[in-house]
C-alpha cells in the first residue's frame, strides 16, 4: 500500500470510498459528498486543493491530502494539517484519515498512519495532535497502539458529530 497525491486515475475508487462512509453513516470522518463527484470533479477542484495545501484558503490550516492505494484498489485517505490553529487544537486535529468500510480490520488504517507520520516528520513537524470522539473505539485503539499520549478530554461540537466528548492525543515524531 502507498500514499499518493490525488490523481484522476483513482477518482472512481475515491467516490466508492466516500459512498461507503456515507452509506454506513460514519460521522467521524466526513469525505466529499459522493453525488458531487462527477466527470469534472477532479479538474474542478484541483486548484482549490492546491491552494489548500499552500494554506491559501481563508480561515483554514494548510492541509496536505493523500490517497491510500494498493495496486489498483482505492483504500483510504490521509490528511495532514501542518499548523496548530485553534480549530486544529479544539476540533479537527493534525490528522484526518479514513479507510474504505469494506476494507476495515485488515491493517490498512495502521499502515496509513505509519506512512502518514513519516510524512509529518519529513514536513518538519515534531509532534501531531489526534482529536478523537471518545465513542470512536477503533481509532482510539490505533492511535494508542502507535504511541498516542492522552492529554485530556474536552467538550466539542461539530455538525456531523453533534455535541460530543473529544479525546486529544499527542504523538511525538
Ligand atoms: C479508524 C479506522 C481508520 C481504522 O481502520 P482499519 O483499517 O480498520 O484499521 P486497522 O485494521 O489497522 O486496525 C484496527 C484496530 O482497531 C481494533 N478495533 C476495531 N474495532 C474496535 C473496537 N470497537 N474497539 C476496540 N478496538 C477496535 C482492531 O481490532 C484493530 O486492532 P489491532 O490492529 O490491534 O488488531 C477505520 O475504522 C475508519 O476509517 N473509521 C472511520 C473514519 C475514522 O474514524 N477516522 C479517524 C478519525 S479520528
Quick summary of this structure?
With 173 residues, this protein is α+β, with helices and mostly antiparallel strands.
Name the descriptors.
single chain; 173 residues; Aminopeptidase; 4-stranded antiparallel sheet; 7 strands; 31% strand; globular
Give structural notes.
The chain is α+β, with helices and mostly antiparallel strands and 173 residues long. It has one domain: 3-Layer(aba) Sandwich (Aminopeptidase). It has helices at residues 11-23, 41-53, 86-92, 108-122, 137-145; strands spanning 2-5, 63-70, 73-81, 95-99, 127-133, 149-158, 162-172. The strands form two sheets. The protein has a four-stranded antiparallel β-sheet, sandwiched between helices. A three-stranded antiparallel β-sheet has the order 5-7-6, sandwiched between helices. It is globular, with a radius of gyration of 15 Å. The structure holds coenzyme A. Coenzyme A binds next to strand 4, helix 4 and helix 5.
SSE map:
Layout: E1 2-5, H1 11-23, H2 41-53, E2 63-70, E3 73-81, H3 86-92, E4 95-99, H4 108-122, E5 127-133, H5 137-145, E6 149-158, E7 162-172
Antiparallel strand pairs: 1-2, 2-3, 3-4, 5-7, 6-7
Coenzyme A binds at residues 26, 28-29, 97-99, 104-110, 132, 136-139, 141-142, 145.
Using DSSP, what is the number of strands?
7
CATH class: Alpha Beta
Q: Tell me the series of helices and strands, N- to C-terminal.
A: EHHEEHEHEHEE
Mean pLDDT: 96
Distance between the termini: 21 Å
CATH superfamily grouping: Gcn5-related N-acetyltransferase (GNAT)
The outline comes out as: globular
CATH architecture: 3-Layer(aba) Sandwich
Largest sheet data: 4 strands, antiparallel
Overall radius of gyration: 15 Å
Total domain units? 1
**Might you state the CATH topology name?**
Aminopeptidase
- Helix/strand structural class: alpha+beta
The strand line-up of the biggest sheet is 1-2-3-4
Bound molecules: coenzyme A
Unreliable spans: none
Q: How many H/I helices?
A: 5
